[in-house]
Amino acid sequence: MKKLTLLSFLLCLLVGTKSNAQYAIKNLEGYTPQMGALVSMMDDLKARVTRQVKDLDQDGTDFLLDDQANRLGALILHLAATEKYYQEATFYDEKLDEVDDEEWLTALRLGDKAREELQGKPMSYYMDKWDEVRAKTKEVLKTKDDDWLLQLRDNAPGSAEYNYYWAWYHVMEHQANHMGQIALVKKRMSEE
User: Fold this and answer.
1) Entry pTM
2) What's the distance, Cα to Cα, between the start and end of the chain in Å?
């Protein structure tokens, strides 16, 4: 009998109980159990970020808290670029900086160049980019299984070993981190 991972255990608790919970991590059709839970969690985070930014006008999309901050549109493109980076690393064993696409690199790195260039487009532009990246993520993850998630790799920053599960967990962790940043910027934006 295989050991249950923490995620599998939690999934069994959530799916196996008859609670009236409003939210649940679900097995998704077409995915293996852990992969479905992973995609369910990623989609939940993306939906929560989307709710925070979807109705922003151009001023809100381009709002800059200070000269070291990032615009909200740029942050959404940064989330898409980070997910694209992990697609390249985990699906194709490549690095984004080997891809000759300056837009993705600018969004991934943020900083002065992003503050200058990533503005003037509606929030829907940035969300559409993220939707395209997410669609590709989900398409490829459907072809992978739970064993793939546990495969160890050694091409992480600093040459540390990691598995694909950690990589995609990190994508979620990154989204959650920026979700908090977006909430802070929106609060400050409403105060000004």
Assistant:
1) 0.83
2) 58
| Secondary structure class of 162 (helix, strand, coil) | strand
Altogether, the residues listed in the chain come to a count of: 192
**Each residue's pLDDT tens digit, 104-161:** 899 999 999 999 999 999 999 999 999 999 999 999 999 999 999 998 876 655 567 8
Rounded-to-integer distance, Cα 41 and Cα 171, Å: 11
C-alpha 80/C-alpha 55 separation (Å) is 19
Residue 75 CA to residue 49 CA, distance in Å, equals: 11
Task: Name the burial class of residue 69, with classes exposed (0-12), middle (13-18) and buried (19+) by CB atoms within 10 angstroms of its CB.
Answer: middle
CATH architecture assigned to 6-191:
Up-down Bundle (1.20)
| Count of other CB atoms within 10 angstroms of residue 179 | 19
Q: Report the 10 Å Cβ neighbour count for 135.
A: 10
120, HSE (Cβ side, Cα atoms, 13 Å)? 5
Give the per-residue SS3 of 140-157. Answer: HHCCCCHHHHCCEECCCH
Q: If residue 20 lies in a helix (H) or strand (E), which one and from where to where?
A: none
